[in-house]
Write a structure and sequence with these properties.
Shape: elongated
Distance between the termini: 29 Å
Radius of gyration: 31 Å
Structural class: alpha+beta
Helix content: over 70%
Length: 303
């Protein structure tokens, strides 16, 4: 054990430049993977906030009593597709409109307390926010009968921003496809970059490997120190990548969110501890795996 550790330390000391280059390449590759994970996480949070903002506004017709409004609210809240139903009375609507546009306050006062219709603001479950499901829900909502069937038409209008919902859904589908394509490209580029760098490092130490093979060293004895170096490179590279990613998060993503808070919705979050562990573990696996593969390939070519 001690002898093996000495071989590893001696190899690092004698080939410090190659060790540093390999560590830097692993760190760079992990930064790419970490950035992808951070962007995917933040985009998913942003998409969730957009989906939560998709709701249906159902305006009660004139003559619908407050009792019926409350009964309809309770009835709709029991539907599977519905996450939340909020009743906005005529007075609530007038208060909101006055706060948004103070100039219309005299007009609303002159028209009376029922100038604006009461409505239900219906938030659907995330799985039911596609254009097709929202359209089907609205059609079924329009067909909802008034309790007691004594007040005539129940709804004056039902609106859910059809065009906006369709555009958001199309954008999200495109975003998902781009995310998958970028993720695959990032993984392939990472594997290619690390594997070829470690291969060049091993090739630069070919004399050492050839001498060990000539003196009868076993394959395990030869490969062991290289794998240990790869593990150490992965650990150091993972720590470096975590520091760089945190700097990018604090120095770029947070500031970008502050500038575009309205469009981005929820603030960006740094990788949780479990994902940091996975990132470092990926670096260890890349370093050890690439070293093992490169040495095995070189030894296979020796006589």
């Amino acid at each position: 054990m001690i002898a093996g550790l000495r071989r590893v330390l001696r190899g690092i000391r004698e080939h410090l430049y190659f060790f540093a280059v390999s560590t830097g390449v692993i760190a760079s590759a992990l930064v790419l993977l970490g950035l992808f994970a951070m962007v995917v996480r933040d985009v998913n949070d942003m998409v969730a906030s957009w989906q939560a903002d998709q709701h249906v506004s159902a305006y009660f017709a004139a003559g619908v009593t407050p009792e019926v409004e409350a009964q309809v609210q309770a009835l709709i809240s029991q539907r599977r597709e519905v996450a939340k139903v909020e009743l906005v009375t005529s007075a609530d609507a007038a208060t909101w409109m006055t706060a948004k546009a103070p100039d219309v306050a005299p007009v609303l006062k002159e028209l009376g307390p029922d100038a604006l219709p009461a409505s239900l603001e219906i938030t659907l479950q995330p799985d039911d926010t596609s254009p097709e499901r929202m359209s089907a829900f609205v059609q079924s909502l329009k067909a909802t009968a008034s309790p007691g069937a004594a007040t005539g038409t129940l709804w004056e209008d039902v609106d859910y921003g059809q065009d906006w919902v369709a555009r958001v859904h199309t954008f999200l589908s495109l975003l998902e496809a781009l995310g998958v394509a970028f993720g695959i490209a990032t993984v392939v580029a990472t594997l290619f970059l690390v594997a070829n760098t470690i291969h060049l490092v091993v090739h630069a130490r070919q004399d050492e490997l050839a001498i060990l093979r000539l003196v009868g060293a076993t394959e395990r004895y030869i490969i062991g120190p290289f794998i240990a170096e790869g593990v150490l490179q992965g650990l150091i590279g993972g720590a470096m990548a975590t520091g760089v990613l945190y700097g990018i998060h604090e120095g770029l993503l947070v500031r970008l969110h502050n500038l575009l808070a309205l469009a981005m919705g929820t603030p960006p979050t740094f990788l949780p501890g479990a994902q940091v562990v996975v990132l470092v573990g990926t670096g260890v696996a890349l370093g050890a795996g690439a070293a093992w593969g490169a040495v095995r390939r070189f030894l296979a070519g020796l006589p």
